[in-house]
Amino acid sequence: MQEWDEAADFLATPAAYGQSGPVQVIDTSVSRVFLAGDYAYKIKKPVRLSYLDFSTRELRRADCEREAVLNRRTAPSLYLGVSAVTRENDASLMIDGAGEAIEWAVRMRRFEESALLSAIAAKGLLTREMIGRLARNLVVFHSAIPPEFEAGGAEKIRQLLTGNEAEYRCFAGNAFEYAAIAALHAASLAALNRHAPLLDARKAAGWVRHCHGDLHLGNIFCHEGEPEPFDCITFNDEIARIDILYDLAFLLMDLWRYGLRQEANHCLNQYLAHQSPEDALASMEGLALLPLFLSCRAGVRAFVAARAASACAEPAPLLAEARNFFSLAQQFLNPSAPHLLAIGGFSGTGKSALARSLAPRLGAAPGALVLRSDEIRKQLA
Questions:
Q1: Which of 60, 125, 310, 373 is the most interior residue, by most CB within 10 Å?
Q2: pTM for the complete prediction?
């Protein structure tokens, strides 16, 4: 701990980077980020939790190296590599000096917070074009990942639901009501039991892959007009080796909770539109899993917010956020009935525009697929 504290104190000083400007320090539950000039340095905290172990320097170094490699899959411009904080002969500290390494850091290019999709969405500036590019990029990413035939499936989702319930109960009577926890768990297990064969079939077909794992708007930034996911799950492969639709579900859930229902629906439709016909057909068959996947994603965010509130001096906003996510988890498991809506008319009269405006309101979140007969005819031809 002493050397970690020394390294953290050193990285918080402008002198570490040979500059006079201020260094911005950002703390998360498991890391500390230092923003200095054009670069960012991220060190792992020496902690051991149920889902990660950063208790030794070598474990932290290994995770830094994994973070750089895995995140280059989606954000190659952002991740520059791993740097060492070294102790020199005169006992001073340097970044990538000749001395012995006392800590390791992920080195990244710095970007403005305004480039985050969460910030763009909060300002009402998230466009259909940007959503379309993001969906296309996710299809390219998911398509390039090899299958993980030993991961995923119904049993893994069952373990996830059991873990979620245990987390909720840690905050029962404060963030969540006991009866609501029991009801959500029962509804989740009922959905799982209905769809267990589909989950296992998708696992056998190769749709479980080493995905991003934490694909919300705060982990996507816009680089030269292209939305690029970053900060993927690196510390626990079980969290990241998931069905590609479960990976996508985090993004869809986050758009939905921001009130961006048109955008969430457009994202789903564009994701399928950019897949090959064979892959799109498999995704359509997998859409029955979305209510459960969306609920799981909202549930995880619920107890994460509750946990943060328990360590906060002013917990009220985080408790409200936790309850909102919990309510979303309940709502996703109670979708409206399926609908089939056919829209006809002469060419150029706005059939597609009308369909896109109605789609988010139909069926389970994030709404209906929009199938255009002229596109289908061209594909068949």
A1: 60
A2: 0.93
